Amino acid sequence: MSCPDRKGLVAMISDFIFRNGGNILHADQHTDLEEGVFLARMGRDLDGFKIPRERIGSHFQPLALEFGMCFQLFRSNQIQKVDLRIPPARAVRLHLSHRILTYGSRTVIFD
Questions:
Q1: Nearest Cα to Cα of residue 28 among 18, 38, 41
Q2: Which of 58, 68, 90, 98 is the most buried (most CB within 10 A)?
């Protein structure tokens, strides 16, 4: 997720997940103060989630539009391990394009 930084973003995202029966398992957020951009990645447990997986994006879209947010949803079966020997510049590019995720001691990438 990325959008112009403003107050209430984390609360809005976590409230959406909570109100629909989800659980946040992992969350990373960062604000680029120079650019005024908010960046976040979240891992969620969707067991018992009130919205079918294929419709989560369309239900979240109105909130994303309100906050000027770009977002992408990935399923856990789309996760692959990353070779940690990749060049640092490539790792930074993957991180900035929201395709890399750290989870505990693991690093994963979305193709």
A1: 41
A2: 98
Across 93-110, b (16+ Cβ under 10 Å) vs e yields: ebbeebbbbeeeeebbbb
Q: How far is CA 35 from CA 17, 24, 26, 83, in A?
A: 27, 27, 25, 30
CB 109, CB 101: distance < 8 Å: yes
Which pLDDT score, from 0 to 100, does residue 42 have?
Answer: 86
Phi and psi dihedrals of 107, rounded to 5? -120, 130
All domains of the chain in start order, with CATH:
1-73 (3.30.70.260), 76-111 (no CATH)
Q: How many CA atoms lie within 13 A of 60 on its CB side?
A: 24
